[in-house]
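INFO  loader      accepted 1 record
INFO  loader      residues=627
INFO  predictor   begin
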Amino acid sequence: MDITRSQLVLTCILLFLSTSLFGRTDKYRCMWRDDPATTMVIGWNQLSGQKPVLYYGTQDGGTLWQAYSHQQSPSRYVPSKGMHNYFVRLSNLQPATTYYFIIVDSEGPSRRLSFRTAPSDPSERLSIIAGGDSRNYRASRRKANQLVGKLKPHLVMFGGDMTGGDNATQWRGWFDDWQHTITSEGRMTPIVVTRGNHEYSNQTLIDLFDAKEAGLYYGLTIGGDLLRIYTLNSLIACGGKQRDWLEDDLANHGHIQWKLAQYHFAIRPHTRKKRERNDQLLHWAPLFETYQMNMVVESDAHCVKTTYPIRPSRGSGSDEGFIRDDRRGTVFVGEGCWGAPLRRNDDDKSWTRNSGSFNQFKWFFVDQEKIELRTVMTDNAEEVGEVSLNNPFAIPTNLAIWEPSNGPVIHIWPMQSEEEHPLLASNSRVPILSYAKERDLKLLEFVAEVTKEGVVLAWETSQEPTHNNDFALQRSVAGLPFQTIAQVAGQGNAKNVYKIVDTGGPTDGNKPILYRLVGRSTRGNSQVYGVSQLQQSAELWKDYQELSSDPQTGMLKVIYALNDCADVRIRLMNRWNEVVSHSEYKDQSPGNFLKSINMKRLQNGRYLLIIQAGDRVIYQYRIEHGV
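INFO  predictor   done
INFO  writer      dumping tokens
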């Protein structure tokens, strides 16, 4: 359709009016200096107008300043990078609450925006995005920013190198691109910033994000005692004051369930283009082990990686100063890729879970049970749907999630002894407790049972990869390290059944015993397929009821009773301990209840159903579906 001259003029007038209405302020951002549940810092660039005031409240007043219950003048003004940066430091806010605001100056109001404070309740689940290195390609940067707006996380952990040259032109462009994280309804996402080597001084982030600490290393606690995020500074001395602060802070926050860290330089980058960071290995990694750092987000290398849980070690089996430790290790992820030039992932380690080279960030959920992590590929941002604020943990349509050989989801569990591990708990009656899955091989069963001959171990596989050479059967007694007790040759790509009798282990039931099945390939790789706890007696199953789904409809009917009012949570888990069905019922009254779960689309097999009332498990069922 041809555009007439009058239509073009009208379009230009409307565009001018729209920019003049909301053009006095721009480049909005929000951050935290203090308690994320009760404070927020709002920053912006003042284009024109005098004496700006921020009006805010829990009710949406649009652009009418009289409709807001509170107002506050800027706490700080600093001209930097060609911008007039104003910051309002809000306090005494309510946790987990949406606040609406406008900025009014001598020329009128800004657009209406909003933010949400962090929760203070540790039972509330968190959604977090983490990544870094956005410095070169603005188109790629904007796509990642758009996904932030669509996924609506509680916050973004940003690992540094926002721009390439740390100059005014590039920073103005960066903040213009950051506006793509703001939703069409005006919802903003707080950013927790880290200094990279392309931020040429600490002062840059202090001036542009109102960072509180001059050294740019600090901690934020979110969700009561659920999570503490540590931001460290790779561009100053890792030892000395920074290390002392880190150790003191970790020691003083031992009550926090989950601990995460972010910093710029990867200790062991997964590209040969970047050098090793032995100073960080020396000063930080031992503290991560001692104080149980659960996950670390690194940047700088411009490639993609996830690791198995690892800890510092120079002993047998270690690689470049780390060794895999599934029980008490830290998971390292990264390494950048928010728009910086991609590099080859040509430096994997023995403890590397997977690596790649593409634009991405990490998206993970944190709750009292586990951390659930995914790698999001960001190039198709325009095709991705939006999550609902009522369910920000749902996977939106067309979201490109990386699916390497070990699966698309990584579960990180609390660092505890194997007897206390949620997948290996002493009161668990699930015959197979697999916590890792190979894409090709499917482990259908892995059980251990005491007989007169000894401990009979049996496992069943399907889709066994042709490159598989053998299985290693390993045993751990009373929490001691696993020892290989048998090597079994693989039988190839078919449905196979294996059986081994262990005559060398205790069978008196006085010591906890775990058996582990490890697959070893001709390629030299190894993969833990599953762990099974020794079933000492059939008595363990006496109160563990078995249910079956209806073979015609696929519906599973479950009955339970409540003696007191409680929040009820029902989870259906498959053999890889992945939650395949989840329901919650708030404030259920005492009584008997019948619930139905549609299993028609699930694969045939055995499942575990757990029903919780509050924090207490009240029912556990072993589910037979289609078998």
